[in-house]
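Q: I'm writing up a methods section and want to include an example of the input and output format. Could you take the sequence below and give the corresponding predicted structure tokens, formatted cleanly so I can copy it straight into the document?
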Amino acid sequence: MPLEFVKEQSSSGSTVQLTDCFSSKYKTYKLDITALDMQNQVSLSMRFLNSSNAEIASTNHDLARQTLYSHAGFGQTRVTGQNRFEIDYYDTDATAFGIGVSMYIYNPFDSLYTYFVEQGSYYEQIAPGGDGTKQIGCLKETTSATGLSFFQTTGGSLSGSIEAIAFQVYGVK
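A: Here is the clean output for your methods example:
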């Protein structure tokens, strides 16, 4: 699949928005998170943004994830009716930039459900070792999305700030 560069961004803050990256030009996009440093031991969460750059925070987010722990057996998560997607990552701030995430996003700009498949790896400080994830998500909305919003959550609640995050977005031809 040939890729065409769309956008690159590095940011920080309690909520980081990646705006103006989806359009009618492509049906499929590739998103790479190339660096991440978060304030606390937390999860990275994601929502799509509509054309006004407002988060689509409805309870129409479904997710299935397989976590491949290096220190224990595998774990599974299957959730429906959520108000965000949780990108499985934990950090105690001891290992900066300990992440690699690659995601394909399907139909974000169209008036269809938006899907993504993601695989990632991260360093878990509490049970030292490299862990991995493989997941699929569906936003069951027909709202046109033009970007993404990322934020930290602990137990489903907003917590702390993202100290550094870097993205690369590509359109798939």
